[in-house]
Amino acid sequence: MTDHHAALFQSLTVRSLNLPNRIVMSAMTRSASPAGVPGSDVARYYRRRAAGGTGLIITEGVAIEHPTAVDNSRVPRMYGDGALAGWRTVVDDVHAAGGRIIPQLWHVGPLWGAMSEVDPAIMPMRPSGRWGTVGATSYSDEYVARAAQLTRPMTDSDIADVLSAYVRAAVTAAELGFDGIALHGGHGYLLDSFLWHDTNTRDDQWGGDLVARSRFPVEVVKAIRSAVGGDLPIFFRFSQHKQQDYTARIAETPNELQVILGSLADAGVDVFDASSRRFDLPAFEGSDLSLAGWAKKLTGVHTMAVGSVGLGKSLRDSHVEGAAEVVDNIYEVERRLESGEFDLIAIGRLHLADPALTETLRTGAPLTPFNRAVHEGNLY
Fold this sequence. Notes:
Blueprint: E1 12-14, E2 17-19, E3 23-25, H1 40-51, E4 56-63, H2 81-96, E5 101-106, H3 141-147, H4 156-176, E6 181-184, H5 190-195, H6 210-213, H7 215-228, E7 234-239, H8 254-267, E8 271-275, H9 291-299, E9 302-306, H10 330-339, E10 344-347, H11 349-353, H12 357-363, H13 372-375
Parallel strand pairs: 3-4, 3-10, 4-5, 5-6, 6-7, 7-8, 8-9, 9-10
Antiparallel strand pairs: 1-2
Helix pairs in contact: 1-2, 4-7, 8-9
């Protein structure tokens, strides 16, 4: 057997997490957990990727215990006896297959109501009551018109309740045996909505300049680090783009990005999950460094790149039936890993098409094309 792409198969240790390779299964919403309870099919789904050699599995987004965390009853949650029993099986099965797994804790914030119809009397959590200025988005005009209505800004009590819910979810995940904690802080969801100036126009301690806008995500990370101790790594997903507007940015310059990420790193983030439509897109003019590359350069902590690995189209551009074009950009991933630009590569859709993707890469076998009609709606 010949090993291909050697840089992908270097080990990496982050706190207590020992990874045999640099390949990560990216978080992908599956909506396959009725009443928020992951069943045996979910356990088999994750176990297959662990058995296929994936170094680390990051679960789909998991709802924290808050009334407006997630608006889809088939998204798994990190509370309730049934859900926790389901997650215990998932964790045990992944570990039995030799894998490692961490949950992505999720609160949708301003995007409450985007996945399903919700009671209009229930107020979404928004820092300043704003959904965000509509830009390049894939949401329907009907949803945008409804969501764009101003709501009451979050109160200090709201903020404290959500912070506590994040901490409870992280502690629960640690007790279940997960190998770390991941926080979704991108794409316009709650943590990101504090960072984005368009959704955070507050003038108190939670808003204003970049330091103040970063304070709530920072406090969430600090509280989780204090609660789970020093062993478990904390991953933090961030992005420039928002689902409200794919052209939006939280930082116009590297210096601005350093303010945000530096404070998060100081709070206890170990790995920045830099979400971009393509892993190799330059993040700022004048440099070919990716968003993950800039995150590592600015903070010195580990980073993970993600976006269209092995594929010709980004997720937003591939909402069509049929197989997506396979593009061999794995060597570009490897080149950037070897140069130290980033430390991990997260792969989403190819993991849906091929549970043994890591072994496929190791042996140099042809990549299995991702077919939306076949692979997106099942738990193979």
